[in-house]
Amino acid sequence: MNNNGAGSSSGSGDASPARRNSKRPKYSRFTQQELPACKPILTPQWVISVFTLVGIIFVPIGVAALLASNDVVEIIDRYDAVCVPQNMTNDKVGYIQNDAIDKTCTRRIKVPKDMNQPIYVYYQLDNFYQNHRRYVKSRNDGQLRDRSKENDTSGCDPEKTTSNGVPIVPCGLIAWSLFNDTYNFTRGNKALTVNTTDISWKSDRDHKFGDDVFPKNFQNGNLTGGKKLDPNKPLSQQEDLIVWMRTAALPTFRKLYGRIEVDLKENDTITVTLKNYYNTYSFSGKKKLVLSTTSWLGGKNNFLGIAYLTVGGLCFFLATTFTVVYLVKPRKLGDPSYLSWNRNTGGH
Amino acid sequence: MARSTKRLRDRLWWSKLYTFSCTRPAVSIDPHSVDGPGYARIVYCNKPEAHRRRPVKYQSNYTSTTKYNIITFLPKAIFEQFRRVANLYFLLAAALSLTPVAPFSAVSMIAPLTFVIGLSMAKEAVEDWQRFIQDMKVNTRKVIVHKGNGKFGHRHWLKVRVGDVVKVEKDQFFPADLVLLSSCYEDGICYVETMNLDGETNLKVKRSLEATMILDEDEAFKDFSAVIRCEDPNPLLYTFVGNLEYQKEVFALEPNNILLRDSKLRNTAYVYGVVVFTGHDTKVMQNATKSPSKRSGIERRMDCIIYVLFTSLVLISLISSSSFAQKTKYEMPHWWYLQPQRTTNLYDPSRPLLSGLFHLITALILYGYLIPISLYVSIEVVKVLQALFIKQDIQMFDEETGKTADARTSNLNEELGQVDTILSDKTGTLTCNQMDFLKCSIAGVHYGVGSSEVEIAAAKQMAIENSTLASSDYPDDIDDGFFGSTEIKLESVACENDNSKKPKIRGFSFRDDRLMEGNWMKEPNSDTILMFFRILALCHSAIPEPNEVTGGFTYEAESPDEGTFLVAAREFGFEFCKRTQSSVFIRERYPKFSTSIEREYKVLNLLEFSSKRKRMSVIVQDDSGNILLLCKGADSIIFDRLSRNGGMYEYETSVHLKDYGESGLRTLALAYRKLEPTEYNAWKTELLNAKTSIGPDRETQLEHVSDMIERELILVGATAVEDKLQKGVRFLFQMLANDKLINQVLILYAMQVPQCIDKLAQAGLKIWVLTGDKMETAINIGYACSLLRQCMKQISISTMSNEFPSQDAKKVLAFCLTSDQAIKDDILLQISNASQMIKLDKDPHAAFALVIDGRALSYALEDDLKHHFLNLAIDCASVICCRVSPRQKALVTKLVKEGTGKTTLAIGDGANDVGMIQAADIGVGISGVEGMQAVMASDFSIAQFRFLETLLLVHGHWCYKRIAKMICYFIYKNIAFGFTLFYFEAFTAFSGQSIYEDWYMLLFNVVLTSLPVIALGVFEQDVPSEVFSQFPALYQQGPNNLFFDWKRILGWMLNGVYASIIIFIININNIGGNQAFRESGQTPDLTAVGTTMFTCIIWSVNIQIALTMSNFTWIQHLFIWGSIIAWYMFLSIYGAFSPLISGNAFLILREVLGPAPAYWLVTLVVTVACNLPYMVHNSYQRLLYPLDHHVIQEIKHFKKDVEDQRMWTREKSKARQCTKIGFSARVEERIRIIKRAGSVHSDFVHAGFIQSMDLICALHVVVEL
């Protein structure tokens, strides 16, 4: 798109020899709206080449994204239903709320393909509205960060204080409902260690959760929610809480549980011993355990590749269509016969 | 005492002469009855201190047109702001944001509102301040006031009080409504110019009471004391009822004794007057109506769009809240993590209806982004900037007066681009009301070699057309068209230079050596020529006034034509130098004698001009005792009154008259008659009888008597005076100083009023002229401006009253009884006949002109006739209404506006145009002359009529497109943004959680997307400005509303919905999915998804606006790319704040999103996908159905206009609406006739044209019933 300059050569009035009137507007290209301007025109050539170019760029990106997604190995294991004892399947809520029943459950997972470390362990919840307005708001960032603000529980309704009025640290619904299932992995007889450090954002650990803030009165209210926190560990080290406190955007979400820092081979069988504590039965949410590797684009997701391929393909199609239209019905650019006065009356 | 009575008698006699009212009988008027309600005002003259206490404490003379003062500004301005429904809505939302119902923090609602309201209020304040400054200029004008003991001193206008005696000097304005006490003339008269009140430029005579006229020096007011009892303040300009009690006598005061504020003392050294009404009590201020606030069509349509958006807002809010209630009732009890058993009313599963209701409010606030809060303020900012550009435009700067164009109310800018009908005042608007003696015909011989503006311009146009024709006939000879126009340029340059060398005499452009410098003596008919000059010098009612500067005389005449004749006579050697009570003195200069001879002519009688008589005569006796009757008048009247031998030159003269008329000149025929003393004496007694008779017959009798003597005339010749059209010659010279040939021609060509009208007509605008002038004058100007031409069929509609034999008293009576209905029927008949005629006319080139006079108009505007009238008027190519009152002007304007539903523009300069200016969609005031009333009432002011072309075709068109595009885009943008919020709700159980951080939302409209929109609204240009005058037809895109019809608006809305869907779906499925979005395995949270989505929106809408623009200066680049960069900058800065402020957005770009390739890839694909449909639509339209501006853009882009001159010229000449008025129509007509005449060789084009003109004139039809 070339630069046409002002497109005006009238050079109005600037050359006036005598400026008798002080009120005379000063000439400048700005005030006379004659600033040099680039006036791009969507000529057919431009349109066709832009579409082609977009196609040329987008299709490879799409292919690359699909390949990346295909490289990711992902194991998903839904365990909420199967971990309920046979006799309790009709009263799952009663099962989960009964602390007397042992919640241990063992799952076997077969590795379908080689998985290179790090292998990320996620838990996935379904139909869990972490993005509900009441839930999202129910926290106090100041309290999480600063020991001196322990008593500041504003915004934490309805989980502010214990029944005798002592402030809860960390307060609020989010912390209170912290996910508390635990997973232990073994391959053969050898335990696979799950590294649960460094799973949250560094900035969260450093700046958002204080290293001198310790849980207080947590889960001591009338109602017990999720996980109980170790009162001797500062919040900045409670990474499961830090991850949990990043509320998810959608009701189906995964959160990072830990990392297995060993390569897994195809057909390996992994035994997962899990504690099925977390109540998703009330709202019939699913619980899944996910083991996944990542690519440069993240997890397994074909959508981005498909989106790129679609848009790129569409652009190729449009480029072809416009070429055809242009060849069938060419219009000379700047052909005056297309001016309305020429079309309507056929000229005077 | 005896001396003073004698003096008094002398003065009375004088006054009769000055005003030529000798025929009026002296009847004393009884004092008015001034009791009762409405007549409560008492003024103690010369005792202003008596008015300090009630009940006679009146308004001060301080006038104010401001809307606010310091105290009322805040409450009033805030009230004004919240009268806008949208603002009220946002105020409510802001108030609710303080409660827990709100989905956002309070600051993110209140901050933008404060910003927006603050900006609007600042604008109001600035505008009001300017009004205040203007007021103060008027209020601090100085006037001489009696300060006691016969001493006078200066005082500001605002300090003038009721009862003050003031002395007003020549050419000063009256500071308040005064009762005239005395003047410098001994008979207590003065001349007043009331242009500011009624637009009339001729002087009016005001007279003082006889009782007070001796108070003509400062000393006399030492002990002056009188009481005036009069009516209360009222807006009626032409009435006044009151009594003056002076020296124990009571005198009646009449409108004639009153000097109104804002009129001007002329031709009188000074007057004394006593103040009766001050400040807002004065008649002119009482007349000042509040100018109605006008809204443009686009803005009205925008309201509809807002309603549509509001409806959808309510709709999706209802969907949201009902779904929310349902979810809360049935599902929320199971969501233990929300502790549903410990909820507030907002989320109470046991009371879902109440919660739903609360949620409705939340939703209404949440989706409020559908309604662009900053739309109004952005539009206001844009319009102010557009107005600044209008003001700064050098093309619309008038060197003569030093005035620029001004947009006084900036909210109508875009309406300028949609005008359909222009209603124009004549005097001072089209013409400068300055006459120029140009040609004359004496004894059947034509004199005067100069050409009128109309002729020059028509010749130019002809030459251009011919050369174009020629070049298209001979395609090989490409240079021809170009060369031809160059020649024209040179010719006109030469002509202009000629003018500039000679010191020009105002009002005299006659050039012909046969008559000048006494050469007329050598002409064969020198006797007749002598008589011609004498008639010019004698037959008038003007007063000479010595001019100290030049030593000559200037003339104060009732009409500018008369003044011109006197100037002409002086230049011919017959200088009118003195008028006494009974004589006129002429200094005659003959080449034979070295000095001039002063001759005295006794004026025996003066038969005044009236529009009915259409002539005036004087009867004079020269020094040798001959009695002559000298007469000038309309040719038709004079020709009827010629003696058998007097019509010697009748044929030649009438041919010349027709010629002059066609050149747009005002013509008068001159004739004389020798009277025998006996004949005269006999007639004189009859005249005396008539004069002394009392009763309604008197006027008729006088007329009859005058009629008796004005017969048997001998024709001398005819004059042709040009009513100078407004133009700006000086500007031309500057243009010519450049060396760019083509552009000069174009500019030259666009300079003058007829060309401007021509351009406007080519742009498809209809032009109506509404004038207070008489029909002949109006028609002449119609010719001069090319609104009329000889070959047009004129339909003139007038009342038949004129045709009634007025002497017959009985018939008059009968006529009066039946008049109303009869006249109405008659006018209906005229209208329907004319419509019929137009319908039956088969000639496609036939053009009709409608001329209607004020009286007929008053009937035609009645409810049952007005639509017939309007339909007829719409069929006519040009419409001229003459003798219309200011009220009628407004009524006609209203009729056109409401009857056609199209946009009307009224343009005028005087106070008489105020009604029309206010009634029209757009009022334009001419600010070139002194009167400010029209300008004050107007929406735009320009210095000269010709600037209307630039104002409409360039600025109007641009502003229309800019505003239209801007609003469309705004709506698109907010839909694209607002709907994503709605979609997201479906994933949050409709809980009212927003996906974006509060700060993003706050900044979206106010910072991140506002500047590009403003750039679009201020700097967008589809084609460069000079193209508009070359292709006036481009203007039609506005009146046809090509860029703001519902199709386009809906298109943009759909585009917005599409974009919102694309943005949401791609984001939710990529970043928003449950998968990790980075190699390091983290999954995205709400903030990350929201931020990515917001990034996509920022990119998409900014790329969209870039695609919408067709003109990129550095400003656009800066704003668009700057906005995108600003978003990233904001993210980094916001992310760097403590997490207490930024929350989850802490370091979001640096740590979370920046390193993720997915984030950038999603942005890219969304941006491209969102803009695909617009791109496809635009390319498709351009490729197959290009609009005019597309093609012209291409021509300009490929420099085809430079390479293919011939095509460019050809297209320029074609690029116009089919028009029936203006030069082009004239020229086309000529060309048609020439072609019809057959084989006329191009060399004889001109001759052929003249021959065919006769033919056309034979066709000329005047319908008169």
From TrEMBL, chain A:
Origin superkingdom: Eukaryota
Protein name per UniProt: CDC50/LEM3 family protein
Lineage summary: Eukaryota, Viridiplantae, Streptophyta, Embryophyta, Tracheophyta
From TrEMBL, chain B:
Record's protein name: P-type ATPase subfamily IV protein
Organism of derivation: Dioscorea alata
